Amino acid sequence: MLKVLLSRLGQAALVMLVVSAVSFVMFRYVGDPVASMARENASVEEKAELRRTLGIDQPVVVQYGRFLARTLSGDLGISFRNQRPVTQLIAERLPATLELVIIATILSLSLGIPLGVLCALKPNGVAARLVQALSLIGISTPTFVTGIVLILVFAVTLGWLPSFGRGQVVELGWWSTGFLTWSGLKSLLLPGITLALYQLTLIMRLVRAEMIDVLSSDYIRFAKARGLPTRYIHFRLALRNALMPVITVTGLQIGSLIAFAIITETVFQWPGMGLLFIQAVSFVDIPVMAAYLLFVGLLFVIINTVVDILYAVVDPRLRARSA
After folding, report:
1. Where in or outside the cell is it found (predicted)?
2. Whole-number Å distance between alpha carbons of 58 and 249
3. Which of 48, 174, 186, 239 has the fewest CB atoms inside 10 Å of its own CB, making it the most exposed?
């Protein structure tokens, strides 16, 4: 088991090293931050001085070495646009993104699992066919179109919910939350639904497929032959086994929700990490862009490493292969 753990941690470290190199090299050539930061009539000397101040006058290898050393020490640099430490910017924007992801996950699980069970138990019913048809529409519609339609209906036409922003928040130390205010909760609904739609459809289809597979297994037939209650068979035996892959997929999808919340946050002007990244791209704010990619990469590496280790704990065959 120790060998499996060390192997996974070594692979995680190697992946993060590659991610850091890719993020640095890729964002190093997206544009010239001096062109955005210098005044319109700046002289050549002023621009050269600004390059020296930013540290981008050195060779790329030297810049990457400094970037890697600072990153390992927890220093992600200073934002070119805000002139503030990138770690502070991420700490300020992270609560908004995490709350949005929490709402999206709750919505997708609370709706996706029951709808998946419904489609599995009555696959030829009218309700099941309607749900599957709507799921195809939902998964095929781009996120920004869904967001705009929701804004048009519930914010502009009906006036029930706000169309942008986070609403009123409560400061709890370094964490700011909108869960404790009515305006904050209302502001979460539209972007939460928009972000949850794809994951909801994925979970619904996964539960449906797993339930159909489990219901056709031998032990379910044996349970029916023994005369066990139908509700017990469906929800105690079949659903419990069908949810195992759903838990795994949901864990991995949380990382995807954080990574791909960019579009949702842009449509609703949600002050999270996705909007911070879009603003950084428009301003060629290299430290913020690199830090965002590093954070997302680290999140995926942590989730995948934990899943691999849990699989090795549950399934002894994986430990035997790694031995």
Report:
1. Cell membrane
2. 44
3. 174
